[in-house]
What does this fold into?
Amino acid sequence: MKKLSEDVWVAGQILPGDVAAVAAAGVRTIVNNRPDHEEPGQPLGADIEAATTAVGLGYRHIPVAGGFSPAQVEAMAEALEAGPVLAFCKSGTRSTYLWALSESGRGVPSAELLEAAAGAGYDLRPILPYLGGG
It folds into this structure.
């Protein structure tokens, strides 16, 4: 898990067996940004959801493939309100981009988002034109 803000972490693919440790770290909601069957051997979202439910965590599935829609950005903004949140995808990049787009929509300056993402090892420059000013 890599920290983006006080209540948001991102990660690459997690497994159902990882959920208890995620909960122990203080996360209250897991956001899955991977479509099912994106690659062979990937756990299904339903299996991760079942593991989150078993330990009392919230779960949101906001699959992203081929770009970000306004509906996905809004869904992520709503999910972040249920924090602390761990968002995951294959590498954490899509989750980081979606976090940045939703936070930009809330008025967080792009410079602040770039710095937070870079601190976690992610580069927001490819989506910089879509982030608000600042």
Notes: The chain has five helices and five strands.
